[in-house]
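Dissemination and training. As part of the outreach component of the grant, students in the summer workshop were shown how a complex can be specified as a set of sequence lines and then modelled as a single object. The example used during the hands-on session is reproduced here so that future cohorts can follow it. Participants entered these lines:
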Amino acid sequence: MFAGLSSEALEAVVGAGSVRKLASGTRVFAQGDPGVSGHSLLEGRVKIVQARADGGQSVLRFIGPGEMYGTVAALMNQPFPADAIAVVDSVEIWWTLPTLRQLMRQHPDIGLRSTAAAGQRLLDLQGRIGELTGERVETRIARTLLRLMEKAGRRTSEGVEIDFPITRQDLAEMTGSTLHTVSRTLAGLDHRGVTGSTRRRIVVRDPRALAQLAEQGAD
Amino acid sequence: MFAGLSSEALEAVVGAGSVRKLASGTRVFAQGDPGVSGHSLLEGRVKIVQARADGGQSVLRFIGPGEMYGTVAALMNQPFPADAIAVVDSVEIWWTLPTLRQLMRQHPDIGLRSTAAAGQRLLDLQGRIGELTGERVETRIARTLLRLMEKAGRRTSEGVEIDFPITRQDLAEMTGSTLHTVSRTLAGLDHRGVTGSTRRRIVVRDPRALAQLAEQGAD
DNA sequence: CGCGATATTGACAACGCTCAACTCACGTGG
DNA sequence: CCACGTGAGTTGAGCGTTGTCAATATCGCG
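and obtained this result:
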């Protein structure tokens, strides 16, 4: 996000923000709260979770080090559309809305970058819209694991491990399914040697096979 | 989109673009084409349709008069992520990418507005992500009809009519279903007096009942 | 060591997709 | 003006995927 900024600008940005630690489980902001702050993660993982009308939840995305979150709502003067919750002990830097606006005025690059990032997310989401409907749960899970792998994968002797704890429930809320079905599906993948999953940990043993499953049904 | 611009700026914007008529069925741009143009609809309706990996299609949104389309891809130097197709005879104004950039430089308001519009779409899409999974087809259809009604509704003696032709297939592609299920569901809604649908036309007779269905399952 | 969070597994039902046949409206051309 | 073809819509039968309900197992933290 801040890569390529002049060191001068970078100093101003860091100086204007506040750094704070987030114990695992901490809620950074809550859905419905007025969006009066922008955030960037320095270390750890934060998940963005939206409560649905039917009482369920949807995990919209996981934030990794270097990513911004909460800024779109803040800059549009809207309430936060989702909760942000640290899933491991983390460190973030955050800014008040006036500070954020001022930084953008003084360093237009920041505004451009955040616009570009929002545009990218818009295109990504449009792509996901289609995937979420009509496809089988196994396909959606495969796709989700691939994305997590690329974003938060860590090579180990067993394969590529997703480097933060993720529950069956989380996966269900990302794929629009239930933890029961996810459990069954993962058990099947484990059995076939594609993945290895233990409590809150998932290792992808055979990325090729997973990619195969993710594109199932493509012509 | 352009409301609130100075008349001077407005003249510059209109002068720099080209106006053209779109016969019903015309494809304005195609998924995968380099995004080298920005568009705004003056009259009619255009639908944005994305081809999915499994061979199916997703209708992402319908564009009405005054709305911009194709601009996010263009400004990010990316290929268009979807097709744009006129569903009735329409009129649009469009700009080349260099022209668009220059207009934004000369009238920063335009850039701000399009960023705001993109942010709004981002929030909308996030909301839709949750809806699309787990909810029953009837619920998704009800929600979709409500949105169409608000956006393109025209009061008639029968109720609120969606003012452009829309097929069961379109509705299926918007809700991630099949035309068969949509046909059955709509027949059910018609029977209960909630809607009245004929070939390519839909009238909402009882918006309250529709809203009720859309929130089915809420706590 | 005990409890809560997490995960597994089975039985069952149902929603909605697939396949298939048929009807209806509309526009085109002979 | 009517025959015909095409696109749009309807309806039925069957079944698979997946959600629901329920019971049990296991891991870890306090």
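Chain A has a mean pLDDT of 92. Students were then asked to discuss how this feature might be tested experimentally.
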